[in-house]
Amino acid sequence: MYLELVRFDMQKIQNPEISGVAYQQGELMGYEVREYLLEKWDRTCAYCGKTDIPLEIEHIVPKSKGGSNRVSNLTLACTACNRKKGNKPLEQFLSRKPELLKRIQKQSKVPLKDAGAVNATRWDLFRTLKKTGLPVETGSGGLTKFNR
């Protein structure tokens, strides 16, 4: 049995071009989350496009549906839109606005839930496989790529 002990680099998944100081410090160095979101979403409600009104931080994937507080899962919404969306999944809330749905999904970043699950469970999987008594070999993603 062969197990690849991969570990995903979350920052590189979200931004393959990141390097140097930005890579070392993370995307929010020098920013508060709210200020970052105001810049990222152009001080505009992501859902109705209104500006110059109070905006609230809104979870794209609701926390009640497994969403996180990562900035890639946050946007800005006016109070009316935030209440209207509630804890609905984005796809349901914007089912009649496919272009807006596509734009918001593109502007937010790739969800890291699956990569995080792999990172968190890889060693448990290894130990479980070892308990079978079968020979288990491990390797890296680089070795797997080389062998392909």
From TrEMBL:
The keyword Hydrolase applies. CDD domains: HNHc. Gene3D superfamilies: 1.10.30.50. Residues 32-83 form the HNH nuclease domain. InterPro entries: HNH (IPR002711), HNH_nuc (IPR003615), NA-targeting_endonuclease (IPR052892), RNA-guided_IscB-like (IPR047693), RRXRR_dom (IPR025938). GO terms for molecular function: endonuclease activity. Keywords: Endonuclease, Hydrolase, Nuclease. Pfam families: HNH, RRXRR. PANTHER family: OS07G0170200 PROTEIN (PTHR33877:SF2), SLL1193 PROTEIN (PTHR33877). This is HNH endonuclease. It comes from Desulfobacter latus.
